[in-house]
Input
Amino acid sequence: MTAFSVNGRSYAPPSRPVVVVCIDGCADEYLNAALARRRMPHLERMACHGYRGLARAALPTFTNVNNAAIVTGMPPAVTGISGNYFLDPETGEEVMMNSSRFLRCETILAVAARAGRRVGMVTAKDKLREILSHKLLGIAFSAEKAAEVQQEIHGIADVEPLVGRPAPRIYSADASLYVLDAGVALLRENLADFLYLSLTDYMQHKYTPEAPEALDFYAAMDRCFGQLLELGAVLGLTADHGMNAKQLADGTPHVLYIESLLRDKFHADIRVICPITDPYVVHHGALGSFVTVHLPESVSVDAAAQYLRTLDGVTEVYDRPAAARLLELPPDRIGDLCVLSGRNVVVGRTPEHHDLSQLAGGLRSHGGRYEELVPLVLSEPLSPTYLAKASGDPRNFDIFDFTCNGGQSS
Amino acid sequence: MTAFSVNGRSYAPPSRPVVVVCIDGCADEYLNAALARRRMPHLERMACHGYRGLARAALPTFTNVNNAAIVTGMPPAVTGISGNYFLDPETGEEVMMNSSRFLRCETILAVAARAGRRVGMVTAKDKLREILSHKLLGIAFSAEKAAEVQQEIHGIADVEPLVGRPAPRIYSADASLYVLDAGVALLRENLADFLYLSLTDYMQHKYTPEAPEALDFYAAMDRCFGQLLELGAVLGLTADHGMNAKQLADGTPHVLYIESLLRDKFHADIRVICPITDPYVVHHGALGSFVTVHLPESVSVDAAAQYLRTLDGVTEVYDRPAAARLLELPPDRIGDLCVLSGRNVVVGRTPEHHDLSQLAGGLRSHGGRYEELVPLVLSEPLSPTYLAKASGDPRNFDIFDFTCNGGQSS
Output
């Protein structure tokens, strides 16, 4: 058994293969809908014989924020990753936060590899790969770019022959299923024994839990979970965030354009950052339930906060110190205010900044408080200590702790 | 078909029996645990052929608050019921809020009865009966006092022979099952055709979702749901609040004594009200995840709020106007501040005010944000309009709307 410590936390994984899966955008309702229809027999077994409960994600409930938290075991205040996108105070420019240069601590994956585990990390989108594979001596590739892997960069030369099919389109169910199939193949071929598999939420953005497409997708995932278990894996499942319909009763997107509203109110050059922004916006139009606001000196933080709290659909408004404390965010990587919106409400910049024309099936998105609670599922029964921990306030970024250390035989 | 309006909302219930059940303290995890073990076949059928999702309860997530909201279809700002217990500004005294004199609007039950429906209302605890049966011409009794019903007060003379067993002890699973069995009997004997059945959360306070006692309890409830459906009912299920373990890793209660902390900090006569307080405190020691704070003039609201936000475990602090707006509370029935605590944290007055000695099995409680999302389950498939509503931001106090108006044939 290889034990190691990362960021002050200890991990003593069993020698069996350890597999952690982040099911991007997996609101618990998706599991409920598929389980009720008996489409996930392996998950059902895990729920009955292992553990199924809920864990709290990191806020804002976005992909980069939570994947960085999961692979480090730390909240965003420590990882430094507060969004997909932020206004860099050093340069004054808006930049993507998907470079490992923004990551402020080590990853469990890199340290596990140094401690002798054969680590495999597979993401759906390539944007995540670079940041999560920071200093990782192991296998790390994305489904999106599976056709382009190189031994010296990705730790593996041929992914498509391994998985048995070509790289998927990124806007597809297969973008996620390919990640899981790659994980199964890595175990089956004995190329790795410590896996992190991070999926994409295209399907959850597009389909409700009861939609046949979603049910088929979850059934297909469940077959992969079965294969991983069959190969002897200890399996831990969680999500980066949930997913809710952000629509009015007539099906149109329910959007508050915070930058427009603030500019009209205060007649000043106010800048709103939407940290959900990433290169893949087809399915959400860069609209989520969390934004940060940068105010010029002429506008008082309190006055802006008070005004925002009067807006229907705004649920929480924090100034920088309160957000750092209550939302566990890095104060230098957020604006003067953080604004969260309701279960069915998104916040954006101005109408011109968001393309809603491609949201054919309606807007489903995340980022706020109502996407905070996500599944926590373990294949092994928990020890009494970890059962107590699970029924307290477990976090999705405790998933490696639970999977490595939580078993009764650990 | 009898149609009627209450508090500006319209209800057109089908002529079939309509049954709404409030499963007190039913965090969604209870349904998950029982469904995964296939202990709730009728609920499983409702989830697959009707609807199962999540609805948002009213804050604070307490029993009186949410039962009052459910039977009126209105948030606490309209009902006036902001807790089980409050500091009456007219008298300066702390009083229970379980009298209908505190209710500020009509109930769906009373209006349905006036419109010609034969209404039956059964609660587990007698404390709720009086408030919920406000102006109701129909049947209204509690399981707790089932032995003492009188025709002129309760609209029924003999409950124990009807149900077939004596009134249950209030601290028992049967306190809730008796309510459901009474509902079944009222339909079977054709004594009512419009039912509200409100259970008690003793079992959820005491047992985790996976505990055999909880699973047996939910299986027994499911048999009653099956009987109600067999009798032709349109069935709607929701909860007043969820339930979480409020414990440290060692199993001891995780309590912040807000009154003690504020008095130490500000050296002033600060008064904290715990609105969870009721005559039945064995299972929670009057500790929940929400309190209100009454400050003397010598202490600034902002200073107290700022201080409270620095406390580990405090998650949200609102002054009166913000609480009225963001939490939909009646401003004259809350303190100067409202304080919410984390998923595994409760807030109380002083150590002397709370008896923890009887919390043998550990503290499970509610009242805050992490008990806000509760099940919403309907026996009938929803119309497209109500499906859109359900996937937006449905409230638990929309349950009569969903049950009466939501069906595809409605």
Chain B has a mean pLDDT of 94. DSSP finds 16 helices and 19 strands in chain B. Residues 14 and 318 of chain B are 42 Å apart (CA to CA).
